[in-house]
Fold this protein.
Amino acid sequence: MNNNVSYKIPLWVNILQGLLIAIMLQQTFMFFFDHQAIAASGINVGTDSPNLNMLYEFGARTLTMALVSIIVLITQNPRYFLVILLMNIIREGLETIVDPMFPLANAPASPTGDLIIHIAIVAIEIWAFIVVYKIVKHMDGAEKSVAS
């Protein structure tokens, strides 16, 4: 018996992923086109090759993750969601440590506030990962019972 309804990614996980994609696309735009916003954050942005290389590489990597996330969102494949959610958890988890230790000049929150915000975001991402992991485990169990 194949019950596809139980394999559906919850709406809140899709919304979370959509918000994360929007953030990544905004960051990509800044890395490629809005160097003044990066300079306003306190990062020394020059027009020399090494600085531009770094900005464009950050932009390329962020754009790649955003595009892969969009593909995952379109396919709605729970196994793909696990990978992208794990990438989000690692990225945000590291930012949870880095951002409060080395705040940007125009950070929207104090280092303590930033830490609390990041902990909340990572907790939601971990919750999404667990929910999707349970869906994948349920799928695997159904596939094994069909095979036997």
Observations:
- Confidence is low (pLDDT under 50) at residues 1-5.
